[in-house]
Design a protein that fits this description.
The chain is α+β, with helices and mostly antiparallel strands. The chain is built from 6 helices and 9 strands. Helix 4 links the parallel strand 5 and strand 6. The longest helix is centred in the middle third of the chain and has 17 residues.
Amino acid sequence: MERLPLASTTSGTRAVGPAASVTAARSDVSWRDRLPVLRSGRITLRELEPSDAQALWAFVNSSEVTKFLSPPPATVDGFERFIQWTHQQRISGTQATFAVVVEGFDTPVGLFQLRQLEPDFGTAEWGFAIGSAFWGTGVFRTGAELMMHVAFDVVGVHRLEARACATNARGNAALKKIGAVQEGVLRRSFQRNGEYLDQVLWTVLEEDWRQAKVIWGGEVILN
């Protein structure tokens, strides 16, 4: 998750799975043409909009959030260009980026990204950045479950990878809680502030998703 391409970028293990109640209103619309709007509880994932730039700049650029991330755009204008870039990447079918919106808030509090590591998204990598005010509130957990629905049920991913710095205790714990499997350590694979850091490689396979117990209910809307 440290490798969010931001353009120029709880206790116990919880099984996750596709919710039987999830429905798509318009199955004829490809995600490359328009990203779905996904809702579960008080969390909504939707495509980034130009008007999101100011809020994302404020949330994602805090030192707490960027400690283990590649440097995000440093200005609001930079985030506007990043949002434009994500739309181009979605049209090309290589990446999908979602804003995280919490009920009661008009603007995003973070984002999730999914990008292909091989043609046609057989293997993909995902990452996330959530405003620190919403850490430990369940926003990541719900958003991650919705993103796995996107990856496996909408995009058609077989293998979903995430990388977290070995020293990022919160990030590694979050991935473990949503059912990801630790596969190994990538030595000195991430550079931050001139220093190379080790990363932990986490994966979720499509068959894990299919076989997991259904524990959430959501609604998928294609506007």
